[in-house]
Design brief:
The structure is a homodimer.
Chain A lengths: L1 H22 L9 E2 L11 E2 L5 E6 L6 E5 L2 E4 L1 E2 L4 E5 L6 E9 L2 E3 L6 E4 L2 E8 L16 E9 L4 E9 L13 E5 L8 H4 L3 H10 L7 E4 L30 H18 L9 E6 L1 H12 L6 E5 L6 H5 L4 H4 L2 E7 H5 L9 H10 L4 E6 L6 H11 L7
Parallel strand pairs in A: 14-15, 14-16, 16-17, 17-18, 18-19
Antiparallel strand pairs in A: 1-2, 2-3, 3-7, 4-5, 4-8, 6-7, 8-9, 8-11, 10-11, 12-13, 13-15
């Protein structure tokens, strides 16, 4: 015990030194305001005009507290009341996950709201964005996000999904609507697209402006558990040829085609045909969209792949009917992903998408400015994608 | 720094001693299973057949980690890998809030799901209950819980509520439904009744068994901010005559009557009249129910007050029409609240409720066995209350 404590004293002294070095940087602009996703009445975390986040936590007996955001840990400094405080380097506009480390324990910040991502419910922060108007809650007609429980035969279990119904859904009981099946990324779940993605607010605002046709969005859980022997490529690494392993998307494909779509068509006033059904997803959800729509072009007309690869001529050659039946292939990335060459799973996504256009397909390639593999890229992708859907 | 560290070493040695004393108790039954409200794939927290909760967290550099549940802090013990573990005394059946303390920082357990209560989003645990069948997710027809955004004129701001619609709501577009306005307690919010209270599952199961008439439930935010000069009575203390201060419920009453009810009647297929409108709430929400229904018996027929006081003959004498128009006054408490004399806000709730029955009112007094001022009392109260509603 005593030996460890001496180590801890050293660790604290060292961390104190690091803190001083960091907080002495002259660049911090002192216009911090509480984050929009704080818990009620909480003054921290705060965000400044540079996109820096300042966190604070009371931990009187702690020896080292760190703020972990964007894969970097920042040491906090302690005042004489035991309250730790500190800030990170400027972050991209939009939403980011983060956590705190208190003497080696990785914990959520008790001041923030919590979001499911990075395979845990944990803290999130919102950096105000120049274009945030498109996902801001406004006094316009609003749709609903409904929690829907159902029994899945293919999984032999109860499941639930979230269903966005557009603003007028309950006004005219004779009207039927197209449906977008919208998938989250790896380590996220069915809550992501409304909580972090603000899909409902994006749609409400687009519909209020007459920029998108009202449609239903179904957000279900596509979590895929990787076999022990496989591992995903690390950032910047070329994926191995056998990753993801063949058949990785089969369980979700079966659940979607055999359970979710029939359940939605039975319980909502859908236009239950191929011309009025779309699928899109981010990252892993985009990869699932690619697999499912290549295998079933008779089910879907519109395809959206956000930061999740692209569809190539080679793919199409082995997918009968895809070229003829699909009305749109939409592919998007954050600009920093392209810089960082995180454009895996099918080569250069712009080039492959252009190759489909060259043979007569309707394609759309979108790049989110100054964002990475993160929610701001995907909010913008949905905002670009939705107006292109169901144009009949 | 050095002086503080010596203190911390002493604190750690002392806490180690306390831990040993606690974990040497012979009574712990080793049949722990992961909690039903753990985050995906998390093995801790666990619950045993005695209702003890065992938590675990990795905190290699921490000197003291505590498990804080039911107003008691339990010291955890650390293994040679820096993982802390320990358990609490047996808890009542049902749902409880808890948190961890890591070297003085109060934080959520990173392994649990999070719930809003005790004025924060934080950890919760579910102790399996002998009667849990009534709120278990089953393969029966399910209603939906819908997030509904609206503009509140009386608050001049956007608000949202959660609306439970019963299983057949979207099947017959000519059918209209009664409405229950169901309020949370102090330090909780509009998410409580579905997340912790499982109001939707309670209703789905009752309706599937033919024990309750299908109705809509509206769960909105009734948070009331106490004036600086006032303070609530502490546990076991008689409240001062002037607490809560007059007018404390006026803001929510105005929001409910002028914004929420007209908005619900305009957007849902309600039976928009007094015979088909009920109000109920727990704790603070019960107190609001008392104030609102005494002031507006022309709006509501059914009144439910769960662990939130009762309605007396004196109340009725100054509430014209209440005695004649109200079809049911339902009052409930957890049995441990009555033992602990937490039956504030109107004297003995059984006696006052009986006094209404003596003058011809329809009343129902329910006591939840072996529970306190906690969600299991309120789940059971809703389960008792719902079958009594809208019997016309």
């Amino acid at each position: 015990m005593k030996h460890r404590s001496v180590f801890l004293i050293l660790a604290a002294l060292i961390s104190g030194g690091i803190c001083l070095a960091q907080t002495n940087q002259p660049a911090v602009v002192e216009d911090f305001k509480p984050s929009s996703v704080n818990q009620p009445d909480k003054q921290y975390p705060q965000v400044n005009s540079e996109g820096r986040v300042r966190v604070s936590i009371s931990a009187p007996q702690a020896l080292r507290v760190q703020f972990d955001i964007g894969a970097v840990k920042y040491d906090l400094t302690k005042d004489d009341k035991g309250v730790w405080i500190g800030e990170c380097a400027p972050q991209d506009e939009g939403f980011h996950y983060y956590q705190l480390w208190v003497d080696g324990a990785a914990v959520p910040d008790p001041n923030s709201l919590y979001f499911y991502g990075a395979s845990r419910w944990g803290s999130g922060i919102e950096i105000p964005a120049k274009d945030q108007d498109f996902y801001t809650l406004k006094n316009v007609p609003h749709g609903q996000v409904r929690e829907h429980f159902y029994f899945s035969k293919s999984n032999n279990s109860m499941r639930h999904c979230f269903v966005y119904t557009p603003p007028d859904y309950d006004k005219d009981f004779n009207k039927r609507y197209p449906v977008l099946y919208l998938q989250h990324g790896g380590g996220e779940d069915e809550t992501g697209w409304s909580n972090q993605g603000k899909a409902n607010l994006i749609m409400d605002n687009l519909i209020a402006e007459g920029k998108a046709r009202p449609f239903i969005i179904v957000m279900d859980n596509g979590t895929w558990r990787m076999p022990e022997q496989a591992r995903p490529p690390r950032q910047g690494e070329r994926p191995a040829g056998n990753w993801p392993p063949p058949g990785w998307a089969d369980v979700f494909k079966k659940t979607l085609l055999e359970d979710i779509i029939p359940m939605i068509d039975a319980n909502y006033r859908t236009l239950a045909d191929q011309p009025h059904r779309a699928m899109a997803g981010l990252s892993m959800g985009g990869m699932q969209t690619r697999v499912v729509t290549l295998a079933s072009p008779e089910k879907f007309s519109y395809v959206g792949i956000f930061s999740g690869g692209s569809i190539s001529m080679e793919d199409i050659k082995t997918a009968p009917g895809f070229k003829e039946k699909i009305k749109l292939v939409f592919v998007s990335y954050g600009s920093r992903e392209l810089e960082n060459r995180r454009s895996a799973f099918g080569g250069d996504p712009k080039a492959t998408t252009d190759s489909l256009k060259a043979v007569g397909m309707n394609t759309h390639f979108y790049v989110s400015p100054l964002t990475a593999h993160e929610w701001q890229s995907w909010r913008r992708s949905l905002h670009e994608f939705a107006p292109l859907l169901f144009k009949d």
